[in-house]
Specification:
- 2 copies of one chain form a homodimer.
- Chain A contains 6 helices and 3 strands.
- The first copy, chain A, has 161 residues and is mainly α.
- Chain A has a 3-stranded antiparallel sheet with strand order 1-3-2.
- In chain A, helix 2 crosses helix 4 and helix 3 packs across helix 4.
- The interface between A and B is large, with 68 and 67 residues.
- The structure holds a DNA duplex (23 and 23 nucleotides).
Chain lengths: 161, 161
DNA sequence: TATTGTTATACTCTATAACTATA
DNA sequence: TATAGTTATAGAGTATAACAATA
């Protein structure tokens, strides 16, 4: 290892830590509060909103699969879907081929609410207006690389204590 | 407005949207799961861990203030603190000057756990290793500017439906 | 009167375990 | 036997409303 690499590594770690802490803080405050405010404006809970987003129109989803995507035990899905169904947003339908599974589909009403919700959630906060197109391009590129790296390193070998 | 500004605005919006959606996804998946895994490894709930982080050693904090920082109703703090106190991590102490308020302080055991927890939470994920020092510097600069903009625009006037 | 912390209540999410109906 | 969904249960977070002690 040459001197330049050592210095890069040392400086890089301090900066990487600042980046990471900034992302943590950004996620816990602004991002989280923005999501919570938007979701509650639709009278939904966070898991309900997440479920609704995962139910793409015209693509029935077995309850088991929804549990996997929400990363919670299958027993929770019953209640979450009960409440969505009580509001007429989704329906349980028999799945072809296996009479055990129930496929979830969004109703017309559900599609309407879902579209509105997703549009609102994805609306870009004004805080991004301060960046030039060039800077946005750079930021997007860097974030994409981090996202790709996260995919390849699911939880990280150093994840445990 | 000249043509170049219009084009910047158009392209910039599409890119800004991608950045925003990438941050949302990153926050909801990798970041959130990483936090959850770390916190549960300490046998804490998310609010408990957050409370512990907010209780700096040697700086007593009234329960009311903790509620404000956790952004939840004051009535919830009783239970959260009960559980932390039952584990000997924090203590309720009388506050000087006002006999109504109870000041929270971390015990020695709490400080030890808190230090370990914060160290673990702030440990940089390996996914950041792929960026050069120069790229990290750029990313940090851009994220800082967004963070500052978020501070100045608490929830955004377009926050409501 | 207003404020701090608590309690009572009700709801949702969470996991575990046991159950049913299928496969 | 194994799997999909449900139910029962217990614990934690959340908000609202009412309360005691204090300001």
């Amino acid at each position: 290892m040459v001197a330049s690499e050592r210095s890069v590594s040392a400086v890089g770690n301090a900066q990487a830590r600042e980046i990471w802490e900034l992302l943590l803080e950004l996620s816990r405050t602004h991002l989280r509060e923005r999501l919570a405010a938007t979701i509650s404006a639709f009278d939904l809970s966070v898991p309900q909103a997440h479920a609704l987003q995962l139910l793409e129109p015209g693509r029935p989803l077995p309850m088991r699969d929804l549990a996997a995507r929400l990363r919670c035990d299958a027993s929770n899905i019953t209640g979450i879907v009960d409440r969505l169904e009580a509001r007429g947003l989704v329906e349980r339908q028999p799945a072809p081929g296996d009479r055990r599974v129930k496929a979830l589909v969004v109703t017309d009403k559900g599609v309407a609410l879902r579209t509105s919700l997703v549009e609102r959630l994805h609306r870009v906060p004004p805080a991004f207006a301060g960046l030039s197109a060039e800077e946005q391009r750079t930021l997007l590129d860097l974030l994409r690389r981090i996202a790709v790296a996260c995919e390849q390193d699911p939880q990280g070998p150093a994840s445990m204590l």
